[in-house]
Amino acid sequence: MQRGWEPVGATGSRGEWRKAVDLVQTEVLRAFRFTLDPTRAQQEDLLRHAGAARWAFNHALGMKIAAHQQWRDQVQALVDSGPPVPAAALPPVLGPRPTDLVGTAGLAERFSGEPLPPGG
Q: Which stretches make up the Transposase putative helix-turn-helix domain (predicted)?
């Protein structure tokens, strides 16, 4: 049993597709293609609307880029200023540190509490 969309007929040249639901029931979709044939005044209106849409998109994109740059500047200023409290006043970090997990020796030492012999 084949499922999915398949063209009707040998080539489906008319844009007709059917969905093979099961062996008994099929659904046929027909596609239609339309073209616009606007008058000169309608062409001018369409171009005016397209230009306004392009301007609105570019304006909104510029605002988004500016807001993102402002956010990045604020984050960089916070990173440059360092933590607000001394590191000694921060609570201890629970769990392994990233440097403890480098290589097998660091991992084994972390869980056994004893250093590994050389080469082991």
A: 28-70
In a domain, 98, yes or no: no
Report yes or no on 90 lying in a domain: no
- Confirm if 106 and 100 have CB atoms less than 8 A apart: yes
> pLDDT tens track of the chain, all 120 residues?
445 666 665 554 555 666 555 555 677 888 888 899 999 999 999 999 999 999 999 999 999 999 999 999 999 998 888 777 676 677 776 766 665 555 555 555 555 555 556 655
Asked if 47 and 30 sit in the same domain, the reply is no
Q: How far apart are CA 30 and CA 105, in angstroms?
A: 67
Alpha carbons within 13 A on the beta-carbon side of 110: 14
- Say if 115 falls within a structural domain: no
Print the domain residue range for 72: 41-82
